[in-house]
Design a protein that fits this description.
The structure is a single chain. With 183 residues, the chain is mainly beta. The protein has a single domain, classed as Fimbrial-type adhesion domain (Immunoglobulin-like), CATH 2.60.40.1090. 20% of the residues are buried.
């Protein structure tokens, strides 16, 4: 499933780059940016649409968001990542699979993702274990997976009121990345 999704994404990216070509004239040189990653972990991931997926929360009212800073329990949305075939570096002793969530939109206290591109003010998104216990960003979280068995990792996306009484209606848009490692 992941390989098919990756192949489709590569085809779309290649097609998109052909459409988005630009020409600079009289150029003596330029910069090339390369992106890559080295990891001690590989896993098969199954979600609602592959390794990259979307979680859509049901709307909340400003009343549900409340007037206090913190996690909003109303309309939290569970999301599941099914992992299998996780292989760790053969030279290391068996360790537990960890997941780390990160984002370019993380708040200074690393509790939530700010709403940088949405129109709502004072409301972001956080990831929780149980609709209330925040998962720290940029921290490896134990999944209890030690081998290649198939396991469902379940988390919740919650709204997070970071504006207190100063919130407004609108849409909330942010993004997170996740990585796996053995520690």
């Amino acid at each position: 499933m992941f390989k098919k999704t990756l192949l489709a994404a590569m085809v779309l990216a290649t097609a998109g780059s052909a459409i988005a070509e630009t020409t600079d004239t009289n150029v003596a040189g330029g910069n090339i940016t390369f992106y890559g990653s080295v990891t001690d972990t590989t896993c098969n991931i199954t979600t609602n649409s592959g390794a990259d997926f979307t979680v859509t929360l049901d709307p909340i009212t400003t009343t549900q968001a409340g007037e206090s800073v913190g996690v909003v329990a109303d309309n939290a949305k569970q999301f599941t990542m099914k992992v299998s075939g996780c292989k760790q570096n053969a030279t290391k002793a068996e360790k537990t699979l960890k997941i780390t969530f990160g984002s370019a939109d993380i708040s200074d206290d690393e509790k939530y993702m700010v709403n940088n591109t949405g129109t709502s003010k004072g409301v972001g998104i956080t990831i929780t274990k149980d609709k209330s216990a925040i998962i720290d960003f940029n921290t490896a979280i134990d999944t209890a997976v030690t081998g290649e068995e198939e396991t469902e990792l379940k988390y919740f996306a919650n709204y997070y009121n970071y504006g207190g009484k100063e919130i407004s209606a609108g849409n909330v848009t942010t993004a997170a990345q996740y990585t796996f490692s053995y520690e």
